[in-house]
Every structure is written in C-alpha cells, then in structure tokens.
Specification:
Chain A: One of its GO terms (cellular component) is transcription factor TFIIH holo complex. The structure holds two protein chains of two kinds. Chain A is α/β, with parallel strands linked by helices. Chain A is built from nine helices and twelve strands. The chains are: A alpha/beta, B mainly alpha.
Chain lengths: 296, 475
C-alpha cells in the first residue's frame, strides 16, 4: 500500500479516526447518558491532540440514518477557548453534531418496531477508510492512521457484508480498528474487526471510568503499543449462524456461489438461487469410486 | 442352461391367503412363486424350501423371451465387465451367485449400457495399419480388391489424379493397373536409367513414374493455412527429420545422396497420415466396387473436406483437437449471484442480538439526544462532577484492566509475569489509596483536566515529580 514506513513523520504520531455512535434509540436506553459520554470523549480527543503536536483527530458520527464528518483537527486549527468554558474545537464539534442529528432525524421515515435498530457502522467505517486513503495519498509525510469505534448499538445483521468488506480493506491497508463497546451485549462485528485488523477490542465494565479506559487502552500510538500489555480478547466468537433457521452452528453447508450458510443440505440456495448440481455431484462420486478402486 | 426341464415339488394355489397343509403352523412366509400370464391371471406355487424356489425362478427367468439379451447386448456387457473391475466384482457377487438375475443386474445399469452403445456408434472402421506391400519380384500376381484400390488412391495422390484423367478416356482400367504395377516394379529396382528409358517410351508410364511431389506440396500448403500460426514449422521441415540430430545420431546426414531413403520416409508418413485420416469413403457402402467409382468418391470427399476446412478455418482445427476428457461440462449455465433481499442474507445474524426494547418514539429519542448536547454546551465540560477521573472509579478500572490483562496473558501463555500482577495491583491500589488520603490525587487528575483549561501551558511540573517520588516509595 501507499503507507510505506518512510512516509511517516515519526513512529509515534497518530491519526485517529473516531466513529461516534449517535443512535438516539440506543442512548435513550443506555445507562450512561449521552452528555456524560460526550464529555468523556471530548476530554479524550483533547488528550490525543496534546500527546503529540502532530497528532490528528477526525470524528465521524455514526447515525441511525446517515453518517457524516463532524470534526477534523487538520482543518480546525483554532485551539483557543471560547468564553472560558470549553475549547473552540469542542464547541464546533458539538455544533456540527447537533446539525447532524437534525439532518439525521429528517431522513428517518418510520418508527422502529420494538427492538433497537443498529446504527450505520458500515457507512462510517467506509467513510473513515476513504479519509485514510486520502491521507495516504496526501503527501510525502503523514501520521499513522487508525480507527476507533465507540459503539453502543447492537450489530446490524443487514450490514454484515458491508462491515466485513470494510474490515478486510482496513486489513489490506494495515489500518487497525480499535473498538470500545459500551452497549449491553458484546458486538461480534467489532470483536472480529479488531481481531482481523490487529486492533484492540474492549468492553468497559465500569462506564463511569470511560475516560480512563479510553486513555489507558486507546490513547497510545501504534509504536508504543508494542511495549504495552493491552487487554486481549480471551476468545473471539467466529461461529456463524445458519440462514435457514438462524441457529448458531459449528458445522454446516455453505453455498459455493454466495457463501450463504445453512445447517441442512438444500437443493437450491435460498439466498442467490443457485441450484446445487445433481449431475456434477453424481459424476464426482462416480469418478471417486473409480479412483478408489486400485487402492482396495 | 443345464436342461430343458426342472422338476420340483410344489403346491398350486390360486390365492395366497389359502391356508397351507392343515395342522402345520408356518412361522415364516412359505416360499412362493407368483406368476402372471398375459391374461393377468395369477398362478401361485408354494415350494418346500427356498432353494427350490430359486431354481424355478431362474429357470422361468431364462425362458422368458424379454429377458433374453441380444448378442450385441451381451457383447456390450462383457466389454463393460472387462473394463471395470469394480463392476466385475459386483457382478460376481450378485449376478453369478444368484442373488440377482442377469437381467435384474443389468436393468439398473441401463444408463451405462446406453452410454457404451452410443460410444460404439461413433467409431468408424479405419485402414489397416500395415503398409501396402506388393511383391516386387519378377513374379506378377496382383490381387486388387476395392479395399486396396482405395488405399492406393488415398496414399498416392499422383496415381489417383492419373487415374481420374486417363480412365476411361485414354485407356481401360485394366491397362491402367498394368501400367501402375509396371511403374511400381521399375521404381522398386531403383534403377534410374531404366526408369528414364521407360518413361521416354511411354508418356502415361512417365506420369506414373513421377513422384507426387507437386501434389504433396500443394496439399501441404493447404494444410499450412489451417495450422495454428503459433506453431513452429521451422523445427520440422516437412516430412524430413534427417536434418535434425535425433535418435542418437551424432552427425547430421547429408540428405542429397539418398533420394530413396527420403522417398521411403515420405511414403511412411503419407501412409500414416492416410491411416489417421481414416476411411473417408466406405467401400462397403458403395455398391459399385469399380475403381472408377472409388476414385470419384474419394475425389469428392477430398473436395468436401478441403472446402469445409477453408470455411471453418481455425475453429475446425480447434474442434479437431478437442479432447473429450479435458473438456469441462459446458452445458451448465454459470450460476448468477442474485441476492434479491439483503435481509434474507443477514437476518440470521440478528438472532444473537437480544431484543432491546425502546419505549421512546423517534422524536423523543432525537429530542433527548439534542437536549444532552445543549446541556453540555451550556455547562461546559464541567458537567461531570469534578474530577473527570474519580479515584474510586479509577481504582476499579485499573483492577478491571489488570485482571483482564493478567488473565489473558496467562491464558495465552505468552509471558508468565508474576511481576505484572503484583506490581500493578500493589502500585495502583496503594497509590490511589494515598490519593484519597491526602487529596493530592485531586490535583493529579488535573493532568487531564489541565488540557481543557488555560493552565495547560503552565502545567505544574512539581506535581508530577511529587507523584513520582511517592511511586518510588511504594515500589
């Protein structure tokens, strides 16, 4: 990829793309209030920017209907304070976030039925990767990029392929995806994303200390990580669920065309409609028989 | 068949329900043979034991005209058995031991038989691979059959052409053949002077004596046009391989001084080409076995094949060299990936997610989110009760992290580092205990807080040094 080590400023300069979950349905049911969450995150972003003068931070809001960039430290050079309460950058972030939420609400069409729907993680991941690709191509020198997902909404199964594609392209371009899951159950998507891309996944136990978790685990640059003991996943759940009965299975059948997973053998793939050839399997078994005869 | 009659004792019945011999209890179904005639009438025979039944059934099965295979079928079956050792084993196990009758055994393999039969039909008889050899002695007995004539014509295009031009306008068929064998004899003597003398006397003979170089060359040119242009023809100059050091020959032989050797090589190649080409004209199909008819038929078929070859160009060539075994099944349409509804694909993964209820409507949810933003805007970052890192919470967080790190490192067996466990636990808990005790921790937390405040530039260095001293004491 374009990210040759020689192109980095130094090995400890980071370019962090933070994906902020702004799913209103999750936050209205969460134990941690959104305002508390934001104050933790804002402090954390400030901390990253001050850890190294060359560090950069980009924030992307992962909404319910849309995603958008709400903060970019490369364009936001004003690090002064606004009326003594908070830095200009924090207030501009909040302002953008408010605008984003209004737009996001306008985009929504129907009320969610019962369960909390997922936020558009696949969209924000793609935006983050696009941004990082631009950074790679920006010039001769650039900081080492990484992605941090601050996610609370449950996994959106309909985004599965899009998210997995984003994960694999991140893996290809050597961009680690760190993830901090603040929802109730753990997210299989984020676990796999961090596992595949070599990032860190953590689910904080005590959300009041979120800032500390963020600082201890996610603030350090990629170079320093090699010297630190960071939480490792005890195990990542790689098991898949079958598409026919939605059961989690250890072994199953996979469509050779679309890779749909089934717990039983079917004559036809219910997803892509491929007919699993009878004649071919017959021929194969016949030739197998023939091949085996000399051994017996 | 051992004999024409098999005699076994049996009871004849009209219905199966009839009781057997009175007083005798049957624990098992008695061996019965049920026969149906053309009028759909049933004849039931009850035998004393199963072997009797078997014998009778076999006997009747053999008598039955439907089950008598034709000679061709039998040949096919034998061929299949010879080719497939597994089938042979099965046949031995079932058909020969009498578990299944022959007909039953082959009934299940109709497909196999049909396939074999189809294969057979495709094959056409070819030429004998033996070369034409006429006794080139003084004795002159020639045996000309239509078969031989066809072979002469296809292997010697010059003779074929001469025959077409001279017979029957200039000479009779018999004369032609006499002249042909005379030429053949003269050639066999390898005496070029005699050949020249004879040719001067008889112009027809001269034509027959001439080598068919021009025809071969024109044919070769025609073939060249159909050859894959990527082929390296320089490597083998026509039929002549003598310019290449082969077969252990160290020296390249001079080609000019051995015209006969060359002609023999050409003859052999021509012959093999004719054999490979196969029989384009079926002599047996031609009712008229006269040489004239054969010659004309051959000329016609040559014309056809050449025009066909020209028309098809390279495609005909590629089809010619298509080997059945190497071809993939091309009748299967490529399956298309057509996901109609993405939800079908992904809904399965939703099962893992617990159904979290959301009581708020959309407006309420967005409203509460916006409220919290405006709240943080109004109150600034001091929203959380000062400080952002609560010492007690911080202690819990460190305990949690230490625990998870130590358990996973132990789990992964990467480094059994007892220091990590004891040090982190001891240091952090005691250092934070001290924070609580002397409230200096409150100032320490300003490290983070300072970033958001004006005092960032004048970050009190002495706090850090103090803290470091304390840590040293603890360690």
């Amino acid at each position: 990829m374009a990210s040759a080590p020689s192109k980095l400023y130094a090995d400890d300069v980071s370019h962090v793309v933070v994906l902020l979950d702004t799913n209103p349905f999750f936050w209205s049911s969460s134990s941690l209030s959104f305002s508390h969450f934001l104050s933790h995150v804002l402090a954390f972003l400030n901390a990253i920017l001050t850890l190294n003068q060359l560090n950069q931070v980009v924030v992307i809001a992962t909404g319910y209907n849309s995603c958008n960039y709400i903060f970019d430290s490369t364009t936001n050079l004003n690090r002064n304070f606004e009326n003594g309460r908070m830095p200009v950058m924090s207030s501009s972030l909040l302002h953008k976030l408010e605008e984003f939420l209004i737009k996001d609400e306008q985009l929504s069409k129907e009320e969610p039925e019962g369960r909390i729907n997922s936020s558009l993680l696949s969209g924000s991941l793609s935006m983050a990767l696009c941004y990082i690709q631009r950074v790679f191509r920006s010039g001769s020198l650039h900081p080492h990029p990484r992605i941090l997902c601050l996610q609370g909404s449950p996994d959106g199964p309909e985004q599965y392929v899009a998210i997995m594609n984003a994960i694999f392209s991140a893996q290809r371009s050597m961009v680690p995806i760190d993830s901090c899951y603040i929802g109730t159950q753990n997210s299989a998507f984020l676990q796999q994303a961090s596992y595949i891309t070599g990032g860190v996944h953590h689910k904080p136990q005590n959300l009041d200390g979120l800032f500390q978790y963020l600082m201890t685990i996610f603030a350090t640059d990629l170079h320093s990580r090699s010297f630190l003991h960071l939480p490792k996943p005890v195990g990542v759940d790689f098991r898949a669920s079958c598409f026919c009965h939605k059961n989690t299975i250890d072994m199953g059948y996979i469509c050779s065309v679309c890779l749909s997973i089934f717990c039983k053998q079917h004559k036809k793939c219910s997803t892509c409609g491929s007919v699993f050839g009878q004649s071919q399997s017959e021929a194969a078994s016949a030739s197998d028989k023939k091949r085996k005869t000399p051994e017996t | 068949m051992a004999g024409r009659h098999v005699t076994k004792q049996a009871k004849y019945k009209t219905r199966t329900k009839d009781p057997g011999t009175p007083g005798q209890k049957h624990t098992k179904e008695p061996p019965r043979l049920n026969l149906t005639n053309n009028q759909n009438e049933n004849f039931i025979f009850e035998f004393e034991n199963f072997s009797d039944l078997q014998d009778c059934r076999d006997f009747i099965g053999k008598l039955h005209p439907d089950e008598q295979p034709s000679a061709a079928d039998l040949e096919l079956r034998i061929k299949l058995l010879l080719e497939d050792s597994e089938l042979q084993k099965l046949h031995k196990q079932f058909a020969l031991s009498g578990v299944l009758t022959e007909a039953e055994f082959w009934a299940t393999r109709k497909k196999l038989l049909n396939r074999e039969a189809n294969k057979k039909r495709k094959q056409r008889p070819g030429f004998k691979s033996a070369m034409l050899e006429f006794d080139r002695t003084n004795k002159k007995t020639f045996n000309l059959t239509p078969e031989t004539i066809l072979q002469i014509f296809s292997e010697k295009p010059a003779i074929h052409r001469a025959f077409l031009t001279y017979v029957p306008k200039k000479m009779s068929e018999e004369d032609f053949w006499t002249k042909y064998f005379k030429a053949e004899y003269i050639l066999s003597t390898r005496n070029s002077h005699v050949a020249a003398a004879e040719a001067a006397e008889d112009e027809e003979l001269a034509v027959l004596l001439k080598q068919d170089d021009d025809i071969v060359a024109s044919e070769a040119r025609q073939k060249m046009r159909r050859i894959d242009p990527t082929l390296n023809l320089e490597a083998d100059e026509w039929d002549d391989y003598t310019h290449l050091p082969r077969d252990g020959i160290k020296e390249i032989m001079p080609t000019t001084d051995s015209p006969y050797r060359r002609s023999i090589a050409k003859e052999i190649n021509r012959h093999s080409a004719a054999v490979l080409e196969g029989r384009v004209v079926d002599v047996l199909e031609l009712k008229d076995t006269k040489a004239k008819a054969i010659a004309e038929a051959l000329a016609r078929s040559k014309q056809e094949s050449s025009t066909k070859g020209e028309a098809n160009g390279y495609t005909s060539l590629s089809r010619m060299i298509e080997i059945e075994d190497l071809q993939g099944p091309n009748n299967l349409p490529p399956p298309l990936l057509g996901i109609n509804d993405a939800r079908d694909y992904f809904d399965s993964n939703a099962s893992g997610a617990e159904q979290m209820k959301c009581s708020l409507s959309m407006q309420e949810a967005y409203g509460s989110l916006r409220d919290s933003i405006s709240m943080i805007k109004a109150k600034g970052l001091n929203l959380i009760k000062d400080p952002i890192v609560n010492p007690q919470v911080a202690n819990q967080v460190f305990d949690d992290l230490t625990h998870s790190i130590t358990t996973t490192t132990k789990h992964h067996n990467i480094g059994k580092n007892p220091l990590l466990d004891s040090w982190s636990r001891g240091v952090f808990s005691s250092s934070f205990q001290s924070h609580i005790q002397d409230s200096e921790g409150q100032q320490a937390t300003k490290i983070i807080y300072a970033i958001t405040s004006n005092s960032f530039a004048m970050f009190p260095k002495n706090i850090i040094t103090k803290k470091m001293d304390k840590m040293d004491v603890v360690v």
